[in-house]
Write a structure and sequence with these properties.
Elements: E1 7-14, E2 17-26, E3 29-34, E4 45-46, H1 47-60, H2 68-78, E5 94-108, E6 111-123, H3 130-133, E7 140-146, H4 151-156, H5 162-166
Antiparallel strand pairs: 1-2, 2-3, 3-5, 4-5, 5-6, 6-7
């Protein structure tokens, strides 16, 4: 008789982006896979909304932890971007998750493998003071973070380092 196999699919949202993942129970552990997929018409989440969600999580957990220090540090570090006297509005910065990949394979307690790749877009349009924006204005900042070497994921997510882009051979030890 053959062994029963099963996958559990999960639909969820991360940073305002709808994603799908699968969970597989294995003989000596489990595997989780989040496959990279193109995202369309994503509105993203403002930094202010992220802070509000963290506050809700903290308060619903019954914890005495406070988010005031985090919010104060963020506001103070971004205050130079504000034209007004009221300080910087954290709702003006929107973060979008463009693509994500995650693979966790834990076969035995001492043997776990984790790979990831994330592409974020930070919408900064209209944040630069007008006096500076005449010289330089930044509409978006993109950020790719990865530790995977899987060629399919690298190609799908267009993860490429500058040296590779311009054709310089990689130095031994580069990943």
């Amino acid at each position: 008789m053959s062994e029963l196999k099963a996958l559990v699919g999960v639909d969820f949202a991360l940073i305002g982006t709808k994603l799908k993942a699968v969970y597989e129970q294995k003989d000596d552990g489990y595997a989780v896979l989040l496959i990279p997929s193109e995202q369309n018409a994503d509105t993203g989440v403002s930094i202010g909304q992220v802070i509000a969600d963290i506050k809700k999580l903290v308060s619903s957990s019954g914890s005495e932890a406070s988010t005031e220090d985090m919010e104060k540090e963020l506001t103070e570090s971004l205050s130079g971007l504000s034209d007004g006297k009221d300080g910087f509005d954290l709702d003006k910065i929107v973060v979008k998750l463009n693509m994500a990949y995650l693979y966790i394979n834990k076969e035995k307690e001492e043997n776990a493998e984790t790979e990831y790749a994330f592409q974020l877009q930070i919408v900064t349009e209209g944040l630069i003071p007008k006096a500076v924006a005449q010289l330089v204005d930044v509409n978006n900042v993109s950020l790719s973070i990865w530790n995977t070497t899987r060629q399919k994921v690298i190609e799908k997510m267009r993860l490429i380092k500058i040296d590779e882009y311009i054709g310089i051979p990689a130095v031994a030890g580069d990943a």
